[in-house]
Amino acid sequence: MNITRKDVDAVNAVLTVQIAKADYAEKVEKTLKDYRRKANVPGFRPGMVPVGLVKKMYGKAVLAEEVNKTLSDGLFGYIRENNLQVLGEPLPNETEQKPVNFDTDEDFEFVFDVALAPEINISLDKKIKITEYEIAVDEKMVENQIQSYKSRFGRYEQEDVAEEKDVLRGDIQEVGGEIVAKDVVISAQHIKSATQKKLFIGAKKGDVVKFSPNKAYKGNETEIAALLKIDKEKAKDLTSEFEYTINTITRYFEAELNQDLFDKVYGEKVVTSEDEFRSKIEEEIKASLKINSDYKFALDTKQVLLKKAEKVEFPEAFLKRWLLATNEKMTEEVIEKDFPKMLEELKWQVISDKLVKENEIKVEQSDLLEQAKKTTRSQFAQYGMMNIPDDILDSYANEMLKKQESVENLARQAMEDKLLEVVKNAISLQKESISMEDFGKLFEK
Question: Does residue 246 sit in the same domain as residue 289?
Fold first, then answer.
């Protein structure tokens, strides 16, 4: 096999692959012998099918398969051995490629267009200035988190007299009608009619409350159907009154701000005063907000470095052709519309790959585990769960690492985090404290 390269320009090249009979003949013969041994042809015992018949039946397909394998191995082997930084994948040349005939040809020639990543010379130095924002934690954030903990670790108690926010359970029956439902849940706070709401507030366990579901929920057939456990169509024109027998009244009490709450949130005696509790919450919020800050820093870094590469030439014509050839759902119209964004992402990939290589950044198994824990913490934090025990973090993280797709995502995130740390240490980092409100406005610009 012979492979030659012809550079069209700095970012486009043509690779010509010449395959001789000697490159594939032995593999073709071996495959045909295997076919002969396994072929089930009427009139012949297994392994006794004439070689000529086997070649007639399978020869062309086997030849095509082996030539394609040889071509693929040779082409991508050449790219690896010559350290070609290709973009996308090689595409058949549309002008120089000659027709291939597997019936008559013994030697084959394949011509491919390849796109080469341009040389981007970007150095990280103190001339580059990027702001790292520290989002200030205010008292309202702390209070909201405290309220969240008080709500989550509250308790339910049974009561005798109903208040607006209590949850009632009971049985309901249509007055003079057929509709009957057991274990129906009602809370006065969800009743839309003030008059109907008053019928339940102050009612006692065991009382029978006579009311109109139609008036209570102002004709909302979805809510009426759910309450009475009937079809929406049946609830549509229902105007009769019902009797509701109260079986239980449950009231929720939020947790008090005391040692019991501190222990439930952070573990026994980890926090022993309200001041410590507030300080701990502030630390957690600050850590959570740093994720937002890091995201903004990553965006700003990307834009600053892309600006330095805005005049670098990329093989745009090839890339558009490659996108169209490799994605069935892609159209020329979509490519023309979305290509600027696609090209920006590709430029950033080339820049970040270069910086990763130059700074010898590597992701180890320990980095993957730590990134998995970080992701898990972030997911729990979305539900207000800040203090997750180490054993639970480890369990979730290890489950993540069992999935290849998750590992790839974690590796990419870990690599980006390491790269951003390298950037921070190399440039002029300008730190600025900012309120959450003003930080949000940065994304409106």
Answer: no
Domain of 247 in residue numbering reads as 155-253
* Same-domain status, 32 and 138: no
* Residue 124, in any domain of the structure: no
Query: What are the CA-CA distances from residue 112 to residues 69, 277, 280, 313, 440 (Å)?
Result: 16, 66, 61, 21, 49
pLDDT tens column, 83-116: 999 999 999 999 999 999 998 999 999 999 999 9
Q: Does the global pTM surpass 0.90?
A: no
Which pLDDT tens digit goes with each residue over 142-161?
999 999 999 999 999 999 99
For residue 273, pLDDT beyond 80: yes
Tell which residue, 184, 198, 194, has the closest CA to residue 243.
184
Rounded distance, CA 116 to CA 71, Å? 20
Phi-psi region of 326 (alpha: psi -120 to 50; beta: other; left: phi over 0): alpha
How many other CB atoms are found less than 10 A from the CB of residue 345? Answer: 12
Q: Which amino acid is at 410?
A: L
298 and 221 fall within a common domain:
no
CATH number at residue 185: 3.10.50
Q: What is the CATH number of the domain that holds 6?
A: 3.30.70.1050
In this structure, what are the phi and psi dihedrals at residue 413, rounded to the nearest 5 degrees? -65, -45
Q: CB-hemisphere CA count at 13 Å for 192?
A: 11
Q: Where are the alpha helices (DSSP H) in 153-241?
A: 194-200, 213-216, 221-228, 232-235
What confidence category does residue 173 fall into, taking pLDDT thresholds of 50, 70 and 90?
Answer: very high
Do the domain assignments include residue 297?
Answer: yes
The number of distinct structural domains making up the chain is 3
Q: Which residue has the tokens 């005798």?
A: 160
Give the integer Cα–Cα distance in Å for 250 and 183.
13
* Residue 45: band (very low, low, confident or very high) from pLDDT cuts 50, 70, 90: low
Pairing verdict, β 129-135 and 86-92: unpaired
Strands (E), 214-363: 242-253
Region 53-74: what's the mean pLDDT? 87
Give the distance between the most distant pair of CA atoms in the chain.
97
Between the alpha carbon of residue 205 and those of residues 197, 305, 440, the distances in Å are 16, 69, 50
| Contact present, 332 and 378 (Cβ < 8 Å) | no
Distance between CA atoms of 282 and 288, rounded to whole angstroms? 10
Kindly tell me if the per-residue pLDDT of 288 is higher than 90: no
Q: What angle do CA 91, 11, 83 make, to 5 degrees?
A: 80
